[in-house]
Design goal:
This protein is mainly alpha-helical. The chain is 79% helix and 0% strand. It has one domain (16-94). The chain is built from three helices and no strands. The longest helix is centred in the last third of the chain and has 33 residues, at 62-94. It is elongated and about 55 Å long.
Length: 96
């Protein structure tokens, strides 16, 4: 019988796909305005439906702060990776 996930591990397991999706979306679009809209919406949905099952928004202190930082870091990293890709493609087109 497998050991059930501890709360911290379950929380991490639920947030990892969200962070990856935000990062991939940021890298694919390289659109800061879109990420400025998507990150707060992702935080609200996560807080309302993944943490509080009934859609009620509450502040959980360090837990919510770490979620916010995860989403912002994923968006920033994705935007940076996407921008590097754009620059590299541009240089290849110009023959450098």
């Amino acid at each position: 019988m497998a050991d059930p996930l501890r709360p911290a591990e379950a929380e991490r397991a639920a947030r990892t796909p969200l962070g990856l999706n935000i990062g991939v979306g940021a890298a694919a679009t390289v659109d800061r305005a879109a990420m400025a809209a998507v990150v707060p919406l992702a935080w609200l949905v996560t807080d309302g439906f993944l943490e509080n099952r009934l859609g009620q928004l509450t502040w959980h202190g360090s837990t919510d702060l770490s979620l916010m930082l995860l989403l912002l870091a994923a968006a920033g990293l994705g935007l940076g990776i996407g921008r590097v890709g754009q620059v590299r493609r541009g240089r290849r087109r110009r023959g450098r």
